[in-house]
Amino acid sequence: MIEVKKEHLALDRNHLEWAVLNQASLFDLYATECSKQESKVARLKNKLEYKTALFRIEIRKNAETARIKLVLDQIDCAVAVEPEIVQLKEEIIDAEEYLGQLKAAVEALRHKRDSIANEIRLAATKFFMTDGDCDPDTKYEAQVKAVEEATQRSLEGN
Which pTM value belongs to this model? Predict the structure, then answer.
């Protein structure tokens, strides 16, 4: 079980190189743990189903031996309050909660990967836009403004 750490999911633009170098490893760590947790949840659910079936059989056998007629609701209630069944259900809830955290972390790392790519494209664009006539931020801002103006004109129908 690994701890989901916010610093693994956040993008520190001041350390972009570190983010690039570690993104794949972090994604692998969380995706692998997520896969393992999915298997664990499935195993716990199978175990619950198996134990539930065993308790149902036992309850019916005991009722037949005692010559007691049980309805399905009585069997369901007897199984639901069985401590082992209650414990398994709690384990499933905990395992599913952790699985949800891992799935969210994997999705966040996908977004982080995209953000890293966008940051690199932006930095490269700023770098290649300098012709010596102005600084990259000024030229970039001018292009953004021109695009926004063109978009506005096209929306107005001019």
Answer: 0.72
